[in-house]
Amino acid sequence: MGVRTANVQDGNIGETLTGLAEVIHGRREASPEQSYTARLLQGEEDELLKKIAEEASEVIMACKDNDHDHIRYEAGDLVYHLMVTLERYGVTLPELAGELDARHK
Ligand SMILES: N=c1c2ncn([C@@H]3O[C@H](COP(=O)(O)OP(=O)(O)OP(=O)(O)O)[C@@H](O)[C@H]3O)c2ncn1[C@@H]1O[C@H](COP(=O)(O)O)[C@@H](O)[C@H]1O
After folding, report:
1. Does a structural domain hold residue 28?
2. How much distance in Å is there from the Cα of 35 to the middle of ligand 1?
3. Average pLDDT for consecutive 10-residue bins of the chain (105 residues)?
4. In the prediction, which pLDDT does 73 show?
5. Which PANTHER family match (predicted)?
């Protein structure tokens, strides 16, 4: 596990995800030597897909430890990698929102 994020304050999830999606989209044209995100977007498909499974496992382990801060940290890793995956396969956040809204009863 890496160093956990210190002094985390609540944010606005819509603004945060929208901003992060824009940064990730911009990394499509970035140098893989300089950007981890660019490597995930432009590199081997399986490297990215393996990260989803790995990060999901880390969330599960943090939950089994019932460690609040660790769950938040690993969920951040999982959401980031999921967003890179959505970018790579062309699924937008508005589209995802529509999918979730369509389920709302
Ligand atoms: N949100 C993230 C983000 N979350 C996680 N990561 C990276 O994802 C990798 C996680 O892989 P690992 O789980 O193997 O890493 P680890 O920390 O050693 O292991 P664990 O802590 O998960 O156990 C690390 O290299 C993290 O740096 C991220 N890398 C980038 N971003 C965002 O993407 C933007 C663009 O970053 P570049 O990739 O540098 O272009 C950044 O400004 C950030 O906003």
Report:
1. no
2. 10
3. 75 97 98 98 98 98 97 98 98 97 93
4. 97
5. HISTIDINE BIOSYNTHESIS BIFUNCTIONAL PROTEIN, HISTIDINE BIOSYNTHESIS BIFUNCTIONAL PROTEIN HISIE
The verdict on residue 89 lying in a domain is yes
The torsion angles phi and psi of 10, rounded to 5 degrees, stand at -60, 145
**How many CA atoms, within 13 angstroms, populate the side-chain half-sphere of residue 99?**
6
**Residue 77 is part of a domain; what is its CATH number?**
1.10.287.1080
Q: Is the pTM here over 0.90, yes or no?
A: yes
Instruction: With beta carbons less than 8 A apart as the criterion, state whether 48 and 80 touch.
Output: no
Task: Give the domain range for residue 80.
Answer: 45-99
What is the pLDDT at residue 12?
A: 97
For ligand 1, atom 17, the nearest C-alpha belongs to 2
pLDDT at 105: 86
Number of alpha carbons in the 13 Å side-chain half-sphere of residue 94: 1
Question: Residue with the nearest Cα to atom 6 of ligand 1?
Answer: 77
